[in-house]
Amino acid sequence: QVQLVESGGDSVQPGGSLRLSCKASGFAYSYYAIGWFRQAPGKERERVSCIRNRDDSTYYADSVKGRFTISRDNRKNTVYLQMNNLKPDDTAVYYCATEDECAGTGLHWGQGTQVTVVS
Q: CA-to-CA distance for 103 and 33, rounded, in angstroms?
């Protein structure tokens, strides 16, 4: 079965950096795009970024553009989300999910990793 495991969440100060990882197993890794989503307490889930499987093209939400970078290492079946210049508004549980061509809908989900940005 499809399994996604996120890691790398932590508590950092504003302006700090984190790199999240999404390790995939149980399926043909190259078959799906991988997206990152986040959900803060009391807020709706927000789609943050996505990387397509076919051509490595990427999508970023306006709120993270210029600060976050998504990448994938096919040898390790892992997708990364490098987050720089973090802000308190970035505080959320971050989830990775498979997507069909970065269409915006998560198909299979990981368990999430907590990112907290606080002074």
A: 9
